[in-house]
Amino acid sequence: MAVQLRVYPHTLDTFSESRQEPSVRIGLRDLLPLIAVAKRNNYIWLEDFLDDEVTVTPDLYDVLRAFSNARRPSA
Questions:
Q1: Is the pLDDT assigned to residue 36 strictly greater than 80?
Q2: Which residue ranges make up each domain of the chain?
Q3: What are the residues whose beta carbons fall under 8 Å from the beta carbon of 38, sequence distance 6 or more?
Q4: For 49-61, what is each residue's pLDDT tens digit?
Q5: Number of Cβ atoms within 10 Å of the Cβ of 43
Q6: 8, exposed or middle or buried, with CB in 10 Å at 0-12, 13-18, 19+?
């Protein structure tokens, strides 16, 4: 017998209550390969986290900004 899935709409209250605060630290060495594989293989679960924010060190932020600016095509 096939399992039937039930879909329950989220209310605003349910969504805000279920939001988790960041509490786990993970190194980029461990994180980036996993995200790269998920992105390359179009894993749908990755989309659930696209609006999440990450905190980086100021020096990594500066490097990422410089890299982003360097990649822009010239006019």
A1: yes
A2: 26-71
A3: 45, 46
A4: 999 989 999 999 9
A5: 13
A6: exposed
